[in-house]
Amino acid sequence: MALTSSSVVSTKSLIQSKTLLSSSSSSTKPNNHSSFSLLPTNYSRSIIKPISAIHAAEPAKSTNTKSSATPVPTTTTPGKWSIDSWRTKKALQLPEYPNQQDLETVLQTLEAFPPIVFAGEARKLEDRLADAAMGNAFLLQGGDCAESFKEFNANNIRDTFRILLQMGVVLMYGGQMPVIKVGRMAGQFAKPRSDNFEEKDGVKLPSYRGDNINGDAFTEKDRIPDPQRLIRAYCQSAATLNLLRAFATGGYAAMQRVTQWNLDFMEGEQGDRYRDLSERVDDALGFMSAAGLTVDHPIMTTTEFWTSHECLHLPYEQALTREDSTSGLYYDCSAHMVWVGERTRQLEGAHVEFLRGVANPLGIKVYTFDFNTF
Predict the structure, then answer these.
(1) Residue 123 annotated in ligand binding
(2) Within 10 A of 85 (CB to CB), how many other CB atoms are there?
(3) Is 365 a known ligand-binding residue?
(4) Annotated binding-site residue? 333
(5) What is the pLDDT of residues 263-273, one digit of tens each?
(6) Full set of structural domains in the chain with CATH
(7) What are the boundaries of the region Disordered (predicted)?
(8) What average pLDDT does this structure show over 291-306?
């Protein structure tokens, strides 16, 4: 769960606002995320079996154009958006794959895969965020700085989901308004880097860019970008969202269960405050039950939960972008909400160009500072 000094501003209009975005590259800015991990580290990488695109069916015809990792000439009309118009712009933070043909094969496979989310879900989240923009709801977004392959299991997904639900109950009770719960999960793999290379003991290797690109072990083999990792990232994202949907609608998120959970990491005064609040919520639930709103009512047993991640790996995001048949708009179907990061928010850059044409709820990552420290 990343409780960071940075925040994501959810809006479409802000992404084109020159007053909020810097046109200069911020690649030299240190990564000042403060976070803690809920995930165990005792899982062996040897148990991870590779998933290869060669096992997929032949790609079906798609409205998506062919993708590649580096900008290539296109026939796009200047100023007009298309699904690949980002290729005419400078793209930062993209990996350099040694074998472009392997990447092409993977991207074509991804284009033929079903979307992870669908347009109607993204539109529903947009409606919820409109309530938050008007002050009638609160947006809660949290998750890990980056998901990994070796720590992927149901318990980790459950624990992150559970903490977001607990935080949501506290905020909803204290603020007396709905809480929109958005997980930074089911797709948050790629990591932006300040430097393309890392050096240890005189050995210089490419930087680790997230499990969907290369491995974190400091070896030459692990640090080579591997397009097959994109297939595994897709599969893990789809499986994660499937479990999240089951948790959200299958009874696990029932209000009376949430108030009975313990925040295991809460100790001392903070733990006492949470338990006191939990008891007050239980009292409120008892009153509601007595008034006729029983615990088996759908509003008490289910919750809405959304996913988000940084739109960093543009070839992958393009491969999962679909044209909505009902609206004619393009949606990045890798997540309900995507955002542009601190190092890729250049107004004339490829990431802003790609995001200006998708209809998902969008975000901009901005840094906040404690002025008391100056």
Answers:
(1) no
(2) 19
(3) yes
(4) no
(5) 555 666 766 77
(6) 102-192+227-253+302-364 (3.20.20.70)
(7) 58-80
(8) 76
